[in-house]
Amino acid sequence: xxxxxxxxxxxxxxxxxxxxxxxxxxxxxxxxxxxxxxxxxxxxxxxxxxxxxxxxxxxxxxxxxxxxxxxxxxxxxxxxxxxxxxxxxxxxxxxxxxxxxxxxxxxxxxxxxxxxxxxxxxxxxxxxxxxxxxxxxxxxxxxxxxxxxxxxxxxxxxxxxxxxxxxxxxxxxxxxxxxxxxxxxxxxxxxxxxxxxxxxxxxxxxxxxxxxxxxxxxxxxxxxxxxxxxxxxxxxxxxxxxxxxxxxxxxxxxxxxxxxxxxxxxxxxxxxxxxxxxxxxxxxxxxxxxxxxxxxxxxxxxxxxxxxxxxxxxxxxxxxxxxxxxxxxxxxxxxxxxxxxxxxxxxxxxxxxxxxxxxxxxxxxxxxxxxxxxxxxxxxxxxxxxxxxxxxxxxxxxxxxxxxxxxxxxxxxxxxxxxxxxxxxxxxxxxxxxxxxxxxxxxxxxxxxxxxxxxxxxxxxxxxxxxxxxxxxxxxxxxxxxxxxxxxxxxxxxxxxxxxxxxxxxxxxxxxxxxxxxxxxxxxxxxxxxxxxxxxxxxxxxxxxxxxxxxxxxxxxxxxxxxxxxxxxxxxxxxxxxxxxxxxxxxxxxxxxxxxxxxxxxxxxxxxxxxxxxxxxxxxxxxxxxxxxxxxxxxxxxxxxxxxxxxxxxxxxxxxxxxxxxxxxxxxxxxxxxxxxxxxxxxxxxxxxxxxxxxxxxxxxxxxxxxxxxxxxxxxxxxxxxxxxxxxxxxxxxxxxxxxxxxxxxxxxxxxxxxxxxxxxxxxxxxxxxxxxxxxxxxxxxxxxxxxxxxx
Length: 792
What we know:
Elements: H1 7-28, H2 31-54, H3 56-63, H4 68-74, E1 80-86, E2 91-94, H5 96-102, H6 117-131, E3 133-141, E4 144-153, E5 159-166, H7 172-180, H8 183-190, E6 194-198, E7 204-207, H9 209-215, E8 233-235, E9 241-243, E10 253-259, E11 269-275, H10 280-296, E12 300-305, E13 310-313, H11 315-320, H12 338-352, E14 359-363, E15 373-383, E16 386-392, H13 396-441, H14 450-473, E17 482-484, H15 486-501, E18 505-511, E19 518-520, H16 522-539, E20 544-553, H17 555-561, E21 571-577, H18 608-618, E22 622-627, E23 633-640, E24 667-671, H19 675-687, E25 691-695, H20 698-707, E26 713-717, H21 725-735, E27 741-745, H22 749-755, E28 761-765, H23 770-790
Parallel strand pairs: 18-20, 24-25, 24-26, 26-27, 27-28
Antiparallel strand pairs: 1-2, 1-5, 3-4, 4-5, 6-7, 6-11, 8-9, 10-11, 12-13, 12-16, 14-15, 15-16, 17-19, 20-21, 21-23, 22-23
């Protein structure tokens, strides 16, 4: 409809007009007047319609109500507060940030501002009405600092838009301090920039680690606040700047000063120092010279750049680190175990960013066990890309020697313990065997107790065999050395070996030429060969090849071996090898220890190899084991070549001694501190026909000897409390120089004869049987009688 009226509105207006004309005609009964009134209404309606058609916007603007919701959405902003007011000073619209900052929808300029803020804002509003725009830079609502912009706007320019922005106040000194002491400072250090913030008085406020390590060193780097900067730097006559603590050979640095307050050159200042770079050609030449020098040095050395990557490593470093030249590592952390990667990387990074004083770090190399080695890390300057020098000592040979010495010391200590145990055990076995022998003399085969006594005696002999093995390991057994050739010993025992190893194991024997004679007990040497052969058979599971070879080893070859344990000399070597599965690396150092075995329970005592070790060591020889997993094991024995007089024949084995009688007469002084042994020996000798006087220690033996009219033999233990047997015998020999002496002991005869400087004494090793005791007694008396007859 014209004018924007609806059809209903038009019909209603037309009806009212006709009703008015009808009422006028009814009241006046004048048709002309009614027609004139109707014409006037039509003319007025036409004028209104014409006006609305000519001015539709003005009419609509006066009639329509404003929709402020859409405007409020349009001015909503995250960091600018906006408010709109009209000429009447009424708040038309504002966004949420305005309400948040001002504490509600307050009408500008009456805002809760600090100080003269409201007055300044009011003046800005007046300027906006007058000039179209007004500004205020310093406003505050609590701790919030604002700037305001006021704009006049609208079609009729009868609105003001108030825009408020937050002002960020930057404290440059505080921000730089925070960044230098954080990740930004570390980033600068990695880039080779040494940075420090200095106060107006020239004192350190904060600095990154690169500056502190170069200027103060690692020890003082944690106590730097307030230090005067001037003494930390040094200027030479040519105007070149250095760090004072680095001495005369310090690399030069370049200083950049950055004032933090541009208008004040005496205010806080940021110092940035970088190393003076040398030319590209000089840098390449210098690094080449250094690499050439490092390659000639026997010490393991490597160069690392600022990023922690290897630049160069000499052969000694490669060898010390156990690296393969086919696959070289990129970073120092690649050559150490996982636990040491972090500490090594930190130390390299610390020295690459300024610290030149070297430091040592204990590391464990990957693939070389848990034994630590020492690596030295030193910061370097003036070598181009090289920033750190690593030094690693090749300690593989030293470690090997340490392990050998430690193993030898351990074996010696265990040997002393085993010898002491065997000695005490021999006393017990002597009493057991003697008691069994005495009981067997009262029983005949067929008696109910005879078999039980024999069983006890058999087990006691087995125990005695174990003690002999312990004594062999501790090098305290009695040996009967002879001058012999190793091939002869192997030939003697080869038939026994073939039966022991079985038909499924092939025995291969090879002998070298020029073997020298050795001095050893042939029986004990045969036991060594048998023990090694049996162990090899078990390791091969009954199938494989057992190889025995002999060969000479000269003193020059021993020196080339580089062993500190085996002195340079000529040796005859015996090597026993098998084709078994080998000995694991963690088991190899323990194989010579007594009672150590990898066999199942009941299948081995663990004394086989320890016996071998003891026999070889007591024969002045050496034994070494070598094994590779899956490649079998080999045992190499080195016996020193015996140097006899020229053209002297080899000593023949002594003829067997004739068996002595188990009966005799005479008076014997028996001195023994062990009650069981003393009782058994007294009963055995008394039963054999001797008169026995007993004593439990040396002093008592001297007392009993003084009261005896006749003493035909002194039978004494060696080791006794208070006074031992040899000390007692020396006193008694002072009274009767010709009295015969028979010592009995659980220790080796050779060891005792070296410590006992008494002539014409006999020796009886424990444990012994009754028959052995009586035979030794008879032999000692016969030897004394022969000496007396010879001196006539």
